[in-house]
Amino acid sequence: MAVDLLLGLQWGDEGKGKIVDVLTSNYDIVARFQGGPNAGHTLEFDGIKHVLRTIPSGIFHEKSMNVIGNGVVIDPVVFVQELEGLDKFDIDYKSKLILSRKAHVILPTHRLLDAASEASKGKAKIGSTLKGIGPTYMDKTGRNGIRLGDLELNTWKDKYRALANKHEELIAFHNVDIQYNLPEMEAEFFKAVETLKELTFIDSEEYLQQAQKNGKSILAEGAQGSLLDIDFGTYPFVTSSNTTAAGACTGLGVAPNQIGEVFGIFKAYTTRVGSGPFPTELFDEVGAEMAKVGHEFGAVTGRARRCGWLDLVALKYTCQVNGVTQLMMMKGDVLSGFDKLKVCTAYKYKGEEITHLPYNIEPENVTPIYSEFDCWKEDLTKMREPSQFPKELNTYIDFLEKELEIPIKVVSVGPDRTQTIHR
Ligand code: GDP
Ligand code: IMO
Ligand code: MG
């Protein structure tokens, strides 16, 4: 059996949680392969809204197994809060959730380092979620990190102390005003580690290989979006992991030739939270309307998301980098009743018109060139069949499919599980 991937094609928050939840009934296993509690994946069903951070979005389905892969970074404190959030749903997570021994642990001092690093950058800050993601991946690639498997050894606290001491020196080096009470944070952390250890730690690459041999179907759930990828995103305004398809290979131990479908998910417009270039960003009342109707506030930090038109130059690029085989368009319902829609099809760059994403997309380098469309007026949220789509929506979808040369197989018309239309 091949492993299918689901990835965000923009700057995150495309609606991955919703779609993974919808698709889970087709899979035996759902696996997260990168990122950590910087993610906020929202699921809505039966009148309930739930936000997941590190736990895969398959957790609400009775049958599916949920794996946290080696590429993920785990904060025991946030993780335990997440588990507590599941208690009211009566989910047997002790048997449905398994974690890779090779996943790295976010320490309290990683969070503090994140804050110190951002504060020291001033206006040039990344706009990090301050969950300690960057410093934890730095320790991973610097070969200093603590992995879940280490927590099973008696000596792990020695390793912890040495690393935390080093972090405190680094925090001081940043020379910014960060107030903290480490003993208090550590007490909370050590308690959470003990709870975490009640779950099953596995060699997840081995588990997933065996599962495949036994004919189990696997869906890999991406976090963040392709434009936040450490290599291919808008560096340095990115996250610290590979959010693109290759990240699923390294973050789960899946070989490239085991990858099947690559589901690419995008909003009918674009949003971004945090700093960094965003060529099609709107600063007028149209952008404000997108934010208002789309409830564009971060699921993790509550920060307002910046909004703008769909950017096909960027979308083509991320489809290519990921090898997307099927597209899913989210939040078309938000645009209902807009006067006109615009789609960026090229950039003006150094006096020329280009259709590839250049090295630098800062506003002084690129000016978007738009195609304009009539917008649909109908409320889409009650529609359940493509035959109900207004003609303007069909025109928009047809145009995008032609430009991207990939079929749009799913159109989402609201946050609920049921508001998902397959074409
Ligand atoms: P993720 O990080 O990719 O899982 O996305 P988030 O959960 O951070 O943000 C997506 C937001 O849009 C959530 O509040 C979802 O409930 C909501 N959402 C998802 N799909 C749709 C849709 O088709 N229409 C509307 N109106 N909201 C949607
Ligand atoms: P999901 O999975 C949107 C952004 C942050 C910041 C940058 C770096 O819900 O789509 P980090 O905390 O990783 O150091 O932040 O990346 N960012 C996200 N934006 N959705 C996310 O996750 C994000 N995770 C990180 O806002 O700009
Ligand atoms: Mg999100």
Please provide a written account of the structure.
The chain has 423 residues and is of the alpha/beta class. It has 12 helices and 20 strands. It has 3 domains: 3-100 and 200-263, 3-Layer(aba) Sandwich (Adenylosuccinate Synthetase, Chain A, domain 1); 104-196, Adenylosuccinate Synthetase, subunit A, domain 2 (Orthogonal Bundle); 266-422, Adenylosuccinate Synthetase, subunit A, domain 3 (Adenylosuccinate Synthetase, Chain A, domain 3, Alpha-Beta Complex), CATH 3.90.170.10. It has helices at 16-23, 76-87, 93-96, 108-121, 133-141, 156-174, 182-196, 204-213, 245-252, 285-293, 312-322, 391-404; strands at residues 3-8, 29-32, 41-45, 48-52, 65-68, 73-74, 97-100, 104-105, 200-202, 218-221, 259-267, 270-272, 306-308, 310-311, 326-330, 340-349, 352-354, 366-374, 408-412, 420-422. Strand 19 and strand 20 (420-422) form a beta hairpin. Helix 4 packs across helix 5. The longest helix is centred in the middle third of the chain and has 19 residues, at 156-174. The two termini are 24 Å apart. The relative contact order is 0.16. Bound molecules: guanosine-5'-diphosphate, 6-O-phosphoryl inosine monophosphate and magnesium ion. The site of 6-O-phosphoryl inosine monophosphate has 23 residues, from helix 5. Magnesium ion is lined by residues 12-13, 39-41, 299. It is an enzyme of class 6 (ligase). Substrate binds at residues 299-305. IMP binds at residues 13-16, 38-41, 129, 143, 224, 239, 303.
